[in-house]
What does this fold into?
Amino acid sequence: MKKKRSFFERAAAAPYMLWSLLFIIAPLLFVLYFAVTDRNGDFTFENLLSLSSYSHTFVMSLGFSLIATVICLLIGYPLAYCMSRTSTRTRSILMVLLMLPMWISLLIRTYSLMALLDNGGLVSTFLTKLGFEKLTFIGTDAAVILGMVYDFLPYMVLPIYTSLTKIDPRYIEAAADLGCNSPKTLFHVILPLTVPGIVSGVTMVFVPSISTFYISQKLGGGSFDLIGDVIERQFKNAVTYHTGAAISLVMMILILISVAIMNRFSDGEEDLIV
Amino acid sequence: MNKKDVLIRLNGISKSFDGETVLDDMSLEIHDKEFITLLGPSGCGKTTTLRIIGGFETPDAGDVFFGGERINDVPAYKRQVNTVFQRYALFPHLNVFDNIAFGLRIRKLPDAEIKEKVKEMLSMVNLKGFERRRVSTLSGGQQQRVAIARALVNQPKVLLLDEPLAALDLKLRKDMQNELKNIQHQTGITFIYVTHDQEEALSMSDTVVVMANGRIQQIGTPTDIYNEPENAFVADFIGESNIVDGIMLEDYKTRFAGHTFECLDGGFEKNEAVDVVVRPEDVDVVSVEKGMLRGTVTGVTFKGVHYEIIVDVGGFKWMIQTTDFVAEGETIGLYIEPDAIHIMKKSEFSGMFGDYSSFSDELDRLSDATEDEEE
Amino acid sequence: MKWLSRSYMALIFLILYAPILVVILFSFNESGNLSSFSNFSFHWYRDLFRDGEALKALKNSLLLAVVSSLLATVIGTLAAFAIYRSSNKRYQRAMESVSNIPMMNPDIVTGVSMMLLFVGVTAILKINDVLGVWTMIIAHTTFNLPYVILSVLPKFRQMDRNLTEAALDLGCTPAQTFLRVELPSVLPGIVSGLMMSFTLSLDDFVISHFVSSPDFKTLPLYIYNQTAHEVKFSMYALCTLMIVAILVLLILVNVAGSVGERKQRKTGVK
It folds into this structure.
């Protein structure tokens, strides 16, 4: 339908276009520029090539965030499933309970977890009282992974829950009618139908996990170096930003590739749930 | 009506959406103070015509004149026409008063005058005392009245009505038909009315424009359209019709169904193939000996005032309405008076309508229901 | 099976809330000790309110949240309108993808990229120290924009197209139509977009971390600095206050949302 758009209709987009050009597109170009130049502004591949020394960090970050994502999925899917099976009233209460932590600053939540797990905190005091040896959580791999799981679990549950509630109950009845028992229905009907939710949830856990720096700083006790930490240090402490820009660029590209791959699984259905 | 009265003139309007032609070189004159109805099945282009007059669509080709002035490029908000939308489109955030006052406020009329005019309108549409009601609390019929008042209060030259009664139930629709007609008489505003309901069109309009496939099939008064349909489409769309292939032997003499009939039409070429229309109520059931045609009754439906019977005459099924009961399987004679026969030129629609061999009430109703869904 | 599913949900939600509850509880603990609760006391709160720096951070946070959420709401609503009104599918897709970039990108990349923009511009213009209140406002507005568009655009799409035409028909110019009819129709979406932006801005740490200067700190930045090396119980008090504030905001959003929904449902033509 071709229709002449009025001046007002065309002008309405202008502020946003200008804004996104200046503050969304331009910053990314600056990342690119800094990543491929040196201190004097000359073109160089040096920054990108020097990243090989961080390969260990990349691998470790990838490992940590993958483990955290898988744990989130293993805990989150049953949770979402249980939630979707409750009555409408209970469901809305559970939804609020699930959303609430998402609105509290991740920094505060990480800090809260630290308070609980701290050496001399409630958990360790409790365990010591039970007669265990004095345990140190802070600074271990487990603490960092736990932090990721704790911080991002709701982001896994929500999209899965949404896709579960979207399933027409008649499908499940139809499956039962066709001779599926409950586990079979789960694997042959429900699971495939919630793939878009899973993909969305995995993305929403994986991306912040691989890029975090405060979780590893707080719960890793400063002894951990994930990509996020390296980037953070490059920008907050280093004299030049070129290496930091190069790492950011590589991370961004890696994430874009993995998100693109995952979205292929979900038939392009994008459910960005906030 | 003379040429001076012409208020709106559409000249060679064409419009297509996504390569599909909706209006094809359409021309139409609309006279001042006229109640004109655009009638046709869904997709015939009637709503598009209305939207072009309202300024919501721009024609691909052709011109729209309003009082002699070309208004193709005049935006909707500067046109002296107002619209009653199909699903009312009342503003949900405003109450009844504010909805009706909307147009006046845009024109920055003084408050006292607005109050006066809205009050007048409310009494005209029988909604006195509804000023402060939220539109969401009104029934369909009441919302309809508010929509009419909201448009009329601006005293437009022309009121456009897009299937305004489609969402109402039958009883309410009949009442609103009368009311709309009264309002039109009272105000003397030109009404351009769009509907797919032929009964509505016939009972309300001064002029009916029958449209199909993006073209005007016939323009005329309701009686003209009913009695003198110009082609098989019009004959079938307006009321029930038996449409038979015939030959015009000479003026006032035609032959169809194996019999020669006298008729009142002339001006065709000798032996020209034509479409013959006979309305179901114009066929008399007589004994076999007295009949001009004979046939076997294959179906009988009781309709209250009359029976509707399907009669097989040499393989062609006729629909006949009669008050006499005949039994299924009976052989009867049919008698047709000369003034019951209407001859039409062959058209693109010939052979598509007017045979009742697959007739069913249910199918008819089904196709009506789908038409309701137009845009 | 039912008890199994119930106890599973209870366990997970307990774990999800335990740390937060511990922080809230220990913010009222008299002693500076994490292992046991001794006596109920407000003295960490008293400390907090005597802390000039904390109060300044609070002021900054509020200022930033108000300005950036309003800015994002105005720009985002106009953008959503333009996207809705456009008939060009490619233009729509382009606008929406651009608005998704800050949402898809990890926060750290958004933060770093904005920092590089500001640093780059500083170098080009040969001025120093641009980082501060303005860069914070720009950054926060930028990450708020997609959320505003996301909550307003669907409301535009749900709107009855005839309402717009009815307004034009009654003599409104397109701008008047927008202000008098379209804007009121999408108001619930605008309000929830605004509230969401306000909350996100109040919460944000990562992006602020990169584009702030030492003399413009927000509450999350202040918490981060204060807890770098040691446990500070006045920070527990601050966290508690922020959690309560977010809670109140959320309730407001939900009330506004449900009132809006109810109004819309009521006016839906059957």
